Structures are given as structure tokens and as C-alpha cells.
Amino acid sequence: MKAYITNITYVLPEHIETNPQNRLTKKTGIIRRHICTDEETASDLAYKAAEKLFSEGVDRNNIDFLILCTQSPDYYLPTTACILQDRLQLSTDCGAFDYNLGCSGYIYGLSIAKGLIESGQAQNILLLTAETYSKHINNKDNTVLPIFGDAATATLVSGYNEHKSGLDGFIFGTNGSGYDNLIVPVGGMRQMFGKTEISKEIDQFNNYRTNLNLYMNGSAISDFALEVVPETIEKILLKTNLKRVDIDYFVFHQANKFMLEYLQMKCYLQDYPYWNDVQEYGNTVSCSIPIALVDML
């Protein structure tokens, strides 16, 4: 049995914020971002995405596993996926768990789904990604405010006995030494809220944040991506015994226009179909690739 993506959909918050037309907007290519209301959470978006998938013909009674990727869960505990199982009226025989990953989250989710299906533990997996990074961001911090948008996606991954390869070619890697380049310092067990002094920071460009907010070292993250992604592409092509010309479309994490253009050059993909469209969404973290796939299709 092989695992296949059979359906994908996405939803966006109704509220839209437009970036100012300045040098940063021109560089990132991000014109508008969809942002949650104060009362709207990741599970609310995930619920809407799943219901949209069901309205498009997917039978909720066939779902035997629910996986949710989010870095903005409703609670530290209980697991948001378990809340969604009940809210979506899925079977109590359905497995469910959250996992905490950012931009790589969708690919990890596909790999987890593949493992559960091809090891015989599940047949139809509902993979949800839901992110409300806006809730981590200080509205006076223009290093991150114009970049990130909120969204949720729903993907059905199903198992079939077919001769085609299905989901394939996963390559993984981890370098945790840069953990503090993208971080919300206060709120976990290392620096507990209520027991940690809230500190304020204003940088040289008058961007304001506290240690309760998201901090991103954009240059360090860009340097890391530009170093790691090209060699990862080569490893994937080698593992799958494919050449660039064999690929119908290259879809990377949709971070921003500048990074995507740079990666296209670094990966020698200038003459190949390559998706680069962030202007209506911004960086939606784990949601960006499934959004791109739906728009592309």
C-alpha cells in the first residue's frame, strides 16, 4: 500500500491587512496578509479547513487519524488535535496528535502520514496545518509584522494498492544550534509566564518587542536556508533517481519573493516551473506549501 495526497484545501481569516508600499514590501513581494481576530484561534481555522474538505466530498466517517501541525495551539495541554476530533465529530477510534514545527511542518506531516499508512496503521489521514503567528507578534515590530500571515489547510492522505510511487523522496536534517534565531522566549517551562520578568527591546530601527513576542533573526535564517536547501534538492533527486527535467513543478516553502528568487538561482531552477506567489498571504509557515499547491492546481 502506498500513500497519496488525494485532496487539499485551505481557509484564510476574513480580516486583511495591507502592507505599506515601501522598499521592504517590494523586496518581500508581500502585499496583503490575512490576520485572525483576537477571539479566533488556530483550532478555529483548522476546523473551518477540515469542514471545507468534507463539503468537497471527503467522508469524515472514513478518517482514522488526525494530525495537526501548529506553533500556536489553543492550550499547552490538552492536545488541540484531540479537541478537533470531537469538534469535527470524527470517530473515537480515530488517532490524533499535535506536532510543533514551523516552515518544514507540512513536509514532516506528509512523511508521518506516509509512515502510518504504509506500515498498515491507518488508511485515511486528515493532515491539518493551522498557524496564527500574528498572536506572537508585537504590532510595533516591523521586522516580522509585514511578513507573516495566518491560515489553515486540510489535506487528505490516503492509502491505495497501486504501482505508482506515491509520496516519496523525503530527506530530513536538523541543526538546533540556531534555535534562538526564531523564538518566543517566554511562555514555556524554560522561562515561565508569571515567573519571568517581562523585558522590552527597541532596536536601532525603532522596532519594539518584548520577550513575550516573536523574535526573528532574518539574516541568519536566510543564510541557513540558502546553504541547506540547494544541497537538499540534490539529495532528493539522487534518492529518487530523478533529474530536474523529470519534475513537473518545484514548490518550495513560500517565505518571501526575494528568498524564493535567490533559491531558484542557487538551485539552478531558472528554466523550470517554479512557484513564487506570496503577495496575498505572506509567510503562512506550515500552511504555505499546501496553499501553493491548491493555487497552482
Terminal-residue CA separation: 25 Å
The CATH superfamily appears as Thiolase/Chalcone synthase
Oligomer: single chain
The overall pLDDT average reads: 96
Strand line-up of the largest beta sheet: 1-7-6-4-5
What is the fold-level CATH name, i.e. the topology?
Peroxisomal Thiolase, Chain A, domain 1
Can you tell me about this structure?
- There is one protein chain.
- This protein is α+β, with helices and mostly antiparallel strands.
- The chain has a single domain (1-173, 216-297), classed as 3-Layer(aba) Sandwich (Peroxisomal Thiolase, Chain A, domain 1).
- Helices cover 28% and strands 18% of the residues.
- The chain has helices at residues 23-28, 42-55, 80-87, 105-118, 218-240, 257-266, 288-296; strands at 2-11, 16-18, 32-34, 65-69, 95-99, 124-131, 151-160, 182-183, 200-202, 208-210, 215-216.
- The strands form four sheets. It has a five-stranded mixed β-sheet, with helices on both faces. A two-stranded antiparallel ribbon has the order 2-3. A two-stranded antiparallel ribbon has the order 8-11.
- Helix 3 (80-87) links the parallel strand 4 and strand 5.
- The protein starts with a strand and ends with a helix.
- The model has no long low-confidence stretch (mean pLDDT 96).
Topology diagram in text:
Layout lengths: L1 E10 L4 E3 L4 H6 L3 E3 L7 H14 L9 E5 L10 H8 L7 E5 L5 H14 L5 E8 L19 E10 L21 E2 L16 E3 L5 E3 L4 E2 L1 H23 L16 H10 L21 H9 L1
Parallel strand pairs: 4-5, 4-6
Antiparallel strand pairs: 1-7, 2-3, 6-7, 8-11, 9-10
Helix pairs in contact: 5-6
